[in-house]
Design brief:
With 477 residues, this protein is α+β, with helices and mostly antiparallel strands. The protein is built from 20 helices and 10 strands. It has 3 domains: 145 residues, no CATH class; 173 residues, no CATH class; 113 residues, no CATH class. The strands form 3 sheets. Strands 2-3-1-4-6-5 form a 6-stranded mixed β-sheet. A two-stranded antiparallel sheet has the order 7-8. Strands 9-10 form a two-stranded antiparallel sheet. Strand 2 and strand 3 form a beta hairpin. The longest helix has 34 residues. It is elongated, with a radius of gyration of 32 Å. The termini are far apart.
């Protein structure tokens, strides 16, 4: 009996704790509110009861009316009141978004957000119904109420004008994208979207921004791959078509993937998304989520994620290596890959098997290493006591032949880089990062070649002075 009393007391204390601190047992959730956008506000307008003003990014101040929404039925009823009973496509898609927000996909993302941030992650979705705004240019209205999330505020904007303008876009997919931002600690760099303030899956932006958007796009592709993977395949084809760079006047230039540097490709959100998607399919989405949580901070990049992933799951090294190399189209230098995945034996063995990037300077520097080794060996032979033995003379001539062969190979790289760099038309086909790389290659390889060419006369004079060749044959002692 005493045991039962103790049990009852414990349950009573537990119940009191639950009532006093409901957060202890609360789960993250998505809350909706509806804001009717009534039109432009002018100084002479007298606001009616319930109306307020809201200034958006264009600088236009709008008259709005906001109310909390507790259910899909309530959202539908309020929107029908303002639309006269018929809902347009944008309004209908707001209902779909609210319905989807209660499903397992969003609940799973919110649970991941709790795991990532260590706190409850409640997200507010504000639905802007712009259906009857007729005193603002449609493109301005669209830009003012473009779907977005607010860093650090767990707030998402949705709008009817966006889904009316882009009627094929799925609100469920957009919601997954924006919720992915809400559960993320990462903060993109200032002005990382360029002069126009916009971004796309194929645009080269900045490192943190590319990872932040890539994480959101990864979740979209994971949840909505399309029939027979059609959405994923279309996405891949867009990325294969080449990244775009925004210029200072907000125009765009596209480059072939082979003429873009590896660093630049890692600054493409679509590349980030595909890396994570391929890894999740080769391993599991749970492992991707674990690496995301373990690496996530205010300044996170795809490098942080990949390093964390291979350290957490070392058995997946080969898969991650292959995916990273494939999704960056083989443009990363060996040093860049080891900087991400480490320089362990497994990585080094994989590097030996892969082809070097087309415009890599590594093969040239490998030859430079060979030339340096030959010079060292020649110097050692040339200081041998005189007269030189036949074996020493033969070794000197053998090394000279190897030296000349290596020097000729080195010259092909020097000429290739120099010819490209000196051709203005050809240089236009390369991305900004690759132009810098080609310039650096030309400026570093040419002086080295000149040094090694300068060694030949010295060697020739030594051979002549020591009578190493007599009558076209190696002289005897």
């Amino acid at each position: 009996m005493r045991l039962n009393r103790n049990l009852l007391r414990f349950l009573a204390v537990l119940a009191i704790a639950w009532f006093c601190d409901s957060m202890l047992f609360a789960a993250s959730e998505v809350n909706f509110k509806l804001t009717n956008v009534l039109g432009k506000y002018s100084a002479g307008y007298a606001l009616q009861s319930g109306e307020t003003v809201l200034t958006r990014r264009s600088g236009i101040t709008y008259i709005v009316e906001t109310r909390a929404i507790s259910s899909k039925d309530e959202l539908e009823r309020y929107m029908k009141e303002t639309s006269g009973g018929e809902l347009d496509i944008g309004q209908q898609k707001m209902l779909s978004a609210m319905d989807f927000s209660n499903g397992t996909v969003i609940k799973g993302l919110l649970a991941l957000g709790e795991r990532n941030k260590g706190i409850e992650v409640d997200v507010e979705v504000e639905v802007f119904d712009t259906t009857f705004v007729n005193d603002v240019d449609k493109m301005v209205l669209l830009d003012d109420f473009w779907p977005c999330s607010y860093a650090g505020r767990n707030k998402i904007d949705f709008s009817t004008c966006f889904f009316n303008a882009y009627s094929t876009r799925d609100p469920e997919s957009v919601l997954v994208h924006e919720i992915s931002h809400a559960i993320d600690k990462n903060v993109r760099e200032a002005d990382s979207y360029g002069p126009d303030g916009n971004h796309s899956s194929r645009e080269v932006t900045m490192t943190r921004a590319a990872y932040k958007e890539g994480w959101a796009e990864y979740n979209q592709l994971r949840v909505f791959p399309g029939t027979n993977d059609s959405t994923v395949l279309n996405f891949e084809n867009v990325i294969k078509g080449g990244p775009v760079f925004e210029t200072s006047n907000a125009s765009y230039t596209k480059y072939d993937t082979g003429k873009v540097s590896g660093e630049e490709l890692l600054n493409v959100e679509g590349v980030n998304a595909l890396i994570m998607l391929k890894i999740s399919r080769e391993t599991s989405a749970k492992q991707v989520e674990t690496a995301f949580v373990k690496s996530n901070a205010s300044a996170t990049t795809i490098t942080n994620f990949l390093s964390t992933f291979v350290n957490t799951y070392p058995g997946s090294m080969q898969k991650v290596f292959t995916i990273l190399n494939d999704q960056t189209f083989g443009t990363l230098e060996d040093s860049q890959i080891t900087g991400i995945l480490g320089s362990g034996k497994g990585v080094m063995n994989l590097l030996k098997k892969r082809a070097q990037p087309t415009y890599s300077t590594k093969p040239a520097f490998d030859i430079k290493t060979t030339l340096s080794e030959i010079v060292t060996s020649l110097k050692a032979l040339m200081i041998q006591p005189k007269p030189l033995s036949a074996a020493t003379k033969k070794s000197i001539l053998t090394l000279k032949a190897k030296y000349e062969k290596a020097l000729a190979e080195f010259k092909t790289f020097v000429d290739a880089f120099t010819n490209i760099y000196k051709n203005p038309t050809e240089m236009l086909t390369f991305s900004p990062g690759m132009k810098t790389k080609l310039k650096a290659a030309t400026e570093s390889l040419t002086p080295l070649y000149n040094i090694y060419v300068g060694n030949l006369p010295v060697l020739e004079n030594f051979i002549k002075a020591n009578a190493i060749i007599v009558g076209g044959r190696v002289a005897s002692e």
